[in-house]
Structures are given as C-alpha cells and as structure tokens.
C-alpha cells in the first residue's frame, strides 16, 4: 500500500519532468548555485542529497553508476566524486540551502536561489573583488 508516501513532483508530462529534474540537478552541481522556482527547488533538493550521500558511502564504481543515471554531464559526475564528496564528508544532511529572492513578475511564482552549503568558490570570489576595490581606491 502507498499510504502517506507522498513525493514532490513537477506538473509536466513524465518524460519532460524527469529531464528537467536531471538538468536542474546537473546545473546545481556544476555551478553550485541556481535561481529557480521554489517548487522546482524543493523537487531537486533530495535528489542532490542522495547523489552526494551515494558518492560518500558506496564504492566508487557503484557510486559513479548511480550518479550517471541522473546527471547529464560527465564534469558534474567528476565534480561529485572529486570535490563534493570530500567537502561534505563530515556533514550528514542539509547539503543545499534555499534563499528566497522574491516573486516572478509574469505569474507571481516564488523565486529562490538554491545553493550548495559551504561553497568556497563564491565566497573567495567576493572577497577577491572586495580586496581589489579597496586596493584601487587607496591609490
């Protein structure tokens, strides 16, 4: 029986919904931050968590097979196995964060920034820009 076994799903035809989920997951893994609707973000959050957990817990060959069934780009698969697996080795859950941005102008859909936790790349870039601005303004 399927009592109380609800899952979040997108209201598209099944093939289109599955491909959209795969593309969103791949984009999130590659760029570590995407802007999308709240519903889409809630759908892909558990998928990303499961992929990274599989990379940490399963043997490498099985983990790669599991990841490649979802991810559409080899670079995203490689990034999970080389970068994200080590980054989240101590964290058991909560690998992504949703930050509300506002509402979309056309239809009023809630827009969020979905980003990976502890992303060093974005914070380093912001710090570099701040240092460049302060160094140029002092001259």
Which band does the percent of strand residues land in?
5-15%
Alpha-carbon distance between the two ends? 71 Å
Tally of separate domains: 1
Q: Kindly provide the radius of gyration, computed on alpha-carbon positions and rounded to a whole number of angstroms.
A: 18 Å
Briefly, what is this?
The protein has five helices and three strands, in the order αβαααββα. The chain is of the alpha+beta class.
Layout of helices and strands:
Layout: H1 14-31, E1 33-37, H2 38-57, H3 60-68, H4 74-87, E2 96-103, E3 110-116, H5 120-138
Antiparallel strand pairs: 1-3, 2-3
Helix pairs in contact: 1-2, 1-4, 2-3, 2-4, 3-4
Explain the overall architecture:
The structure is a single chain. This protein has 139 residues and is α+β, with helices and mostly antiparallel strands. It has a single domain (14-138), classed as 50s Ribosomal Protein L17, Chain: A (Alpha-Beta Complex), CATH 3.90.1030.10. It is built from five helices and three strands. It has a three-stranded antiparallel β-sheet with strand order 1-3-2. A hairpin with a 6-residue loop joins strand 2 (96-103) and strand 3. Helix 1 (14-31) packs across helix 4 (74-87) and helix 3 packs across helix 4 (74-87). The longest helix has 20 residues, at 38-57. It is globular, with a radius of gyration of 18 Å. The termini are far apart. The mean pLDDT is 88.
């Amino acid at each position: 029986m399927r009592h109380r076994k609800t899952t979040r799903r997108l209201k598209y035809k099944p093939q289109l919904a599955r491909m959209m989920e795969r593309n969103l997951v791949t984009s999130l893994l590659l760029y570590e931050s995407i802007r999308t609707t709240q519903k889409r973000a809630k759908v892909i959050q558990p998928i990303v968590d499961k992929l990274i957990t599989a990379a940490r817990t399963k043997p490498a060959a099985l983990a790669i097979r599991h990841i490649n069934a979802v991810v559409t780009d080899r670079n995203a698969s490689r990034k999970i196995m080389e970068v994200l697996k080590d980054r989240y080795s101590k964290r058991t859950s909560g690998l992504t964060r949703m930050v509300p941005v506002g509402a979309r102008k056309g239809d009023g859909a809630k827009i969020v920034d979905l980003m990976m936790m502890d992303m060093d790349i974005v914070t380093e870039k912001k710090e570099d820009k701040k240092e460049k601005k302060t160094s140029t303004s002092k001259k």
